[in-house]
Structure formats: C-alpha cells, structure tokens
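step: validate -> pass
step: tokenize input -> pass
step: predict -> running
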Amino acid sequence: MEKLPIKAVVNGLLELQRTGQSATLLGIGPMSKNCVQATLELSKEDDYPVMFIASRNQVDADELGGGYVNGWNQFTFAQAVQEVAEEINYDNLYYLCRDHGGPWQRDKERNDHLPVKEAMDLGKKSYIADIEAGFDLLMIDPTKDPFEIGKVIPLDIVLERTVELIEFCESERKKRNLPEIGYEVGTEETNGGLTSTETYETFILRLKEELSKRNLPMPTFIVGQTGTLTRKTEQVGKFNFKNAYDLAQMAKKYGVGLKEHNGDYLDDVTLLEHIPSSITATNVAPQYGTEETRAYLNLAEVEKRLFDNGLLTEISSIREVLLLHAIKSERWRKWMVGDQVNLTVEEILNSNDGDLQDEILDIAGHYTFNDDEVKKEIDKLYANLSKFNIDGKRYVIDHIKRPIRDYAECYNLKGATTRVKSVID
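step: predict -> pass
step: emit ->
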C-alpha cells in the first residue's frame, strides 16, 4: 500500500467529520515488540491506520542514552516494526511518531537541570536521528523546563522554542531530501499553558503567523487538554466533552487535528464521546504495558498450578523477578500519588505491604521487559507452558489486543483507511 503522509490522513479524517464517517486515530506507546505485533495485527484485520508514539525515554539515539524499550534507538525501533510488519504480511498504514520530543524530555536531562542551550542541542540531536530513521510525525514539546517547575511557562517562550525546533527539523529534512513529515505541538501538561480555549486559539494564531513568516508548515496536530489524566493504573481525570468539542472545532478552523494525551483506561461511555466531540487522535501508552505485565502474571499462575499438580518439576520466577526489577526501576514514581512518590526502594523491598508491591508491579512491570533476567524468566515460562500446548507468546499478544480493540471499536476505526482514501482520491 502506498504510504500516505500522516497530514493527508488527518485532512481526510477532518473532511469525514462533516459526514459523520470519521474516526479517532490511536497513538500507541510501543512498550514491547509484542505490543507492536498486537497493534499491527488489529490494524491489518480491521483496516485502519495506527501511530506508534515513542517518548525519548523509550526510544532514543544511543549517544543520548538509548531507550528502555528493547534498548531501541530510532533505527532499531523502525527496523523492529518493519520486521513485525513483514512477518504478518501487513498491508495497511503505520506511522512512527516522536512523542514529547525536545529539550529536557529525557528524565536525566531534566534531573540534571541542563541549561537551555545544552538541552535544546540534545533535543535537536534526537530529532535528527528521528528524521534520518524515517519518523512520520515529530512532537515539538519545549514545556518540560526544569527551571519552571509548577509554573505556567510563558506562552512567548513556548512559542519561540516551538518555532525554532520546527524550523530546525524542516531544514534538516530538506537537506536530506526526505519526504514531508508532520508536526505535533502543544502539551497535555498544565504547565504548558494550553488548558483553556482562549489560550489555545491565541497559541494557534501566533504559531500560524510565525510559521508563515518562515514558510514553514502548520502542524498536523495540536494537543489540547480534554480533562484526561492517568495515575497509577487508572484514569483519574474527568473527560470534558464541551472543552474537547470546542478545542476540536477551533483546531479544525486552521486545518489541524486535536490530539488528546493521557487516554489510558477510559470507559466505553467516554470512548464513544470521542467521535461526536471530533477528537482526531488519542495517545494511549502505559495501559498496554500494564496489560502485558498482567498477561505474564496470568501465565505464571497457570504455570504454578501445573507445578502444584505435579506436572512440572520446576517453574520460572517471573513474578518475583518482574517485581524486583520494577521496584528498582523507580519509574513508578511518575504515576504514584501522595506520599508514595517519596518512598525509597529499600522501604518498598522491605515492606510487608503486599498490596503496595502488587501496585508497583502493575504500574512499572513493563519498564523491565528488556532486562536480561526478566527475559530469561519469560523464556522459561514459555518453555514450561509449551509442554502443555499453551503458546505463551500468542496469549500475551492476544491479551494486549483486547483493550486496543475496545478503543478501536468505540473510535469507529474499522475501515478508516478505506474511508480516508476515498475522500483523498
């Protein structure tokens, strides 16, 4: 299938909104190769485009620290997705997307309080690797400023850095004679300042003015706050239909799609509201990682029962190893609330609070899938179950497909590629 630029797909969806045949695209965090396969299989089966949204912590250049997902850099990530696509004879549209690109978007850069120029330079290096690896969409997000913690970053600064980074990326793309790419601007973070419809339109208007002065393209997506917020393994926000609808109409006026972040763990009623509210795309990431962790724990429970019944002589330590590595990763801190954020690793390891440990495993298990010890135990788990005609890997992929399918159904994605192509042709 000929690859349509992502901007063309979004334009097609905006056009389809007039006839009620549109869909809300899914941006999926590529938490593992299993997640990539689950995503591509569904996209192929139900004929819709998908986006893989990789943060800089997940996928980045080796010289910048690489990524925690499979140790992927931009090129090995692109290659892994292509390999899966070839294995399953994939024949639809997938897009490689940079989620939260820019300065201070790696945890270490932010924690080190790098000065502005150094942080911007590292963000640019990362973008060059994105561009050379063939990414289709780059999110330009200069709002993670460690010197402005808890404050709303002035719109002028967000705008100035956004324009500088788009200009840089376009220049690098053209130097290499590469096809057009899409851009995503704004942020779901409240310190980004784009939480009200008034600020949102001011930002779009000023951005349009600055980009047109420099003959730069308008973005494909602008992120807006729809009320969603993910904490632990729950959706703790409250979807605001009116705000979402108003932002979507405003973005559409300028030929841009509204992108929603933090779309994890939404109930069906909220999911079904996305089509009438004209949200063009939603990002979902940690939920699918958590589902993969839960799949391994389900398989481990089956393995234990086989052992208890004398059918296995030894079993994997997948649960214990996943838990240990999840706690030590400390990546659960991002998702915890209240005083739990400040717990030390030692306090958790020595705690008799099984519920707390279970919670951390649920939240942060997926950050450890690339650890050698974890991979060894997964292999052992699969080998034990295969003796009893249980295909562990197939189960894991199918388990991840369930929540993706729920979203795709509510988001009217079935047949979306065909519908988009019909309005473009």
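step: describe -> Residues 289-399 form one domain.
step: cleanup -> pass
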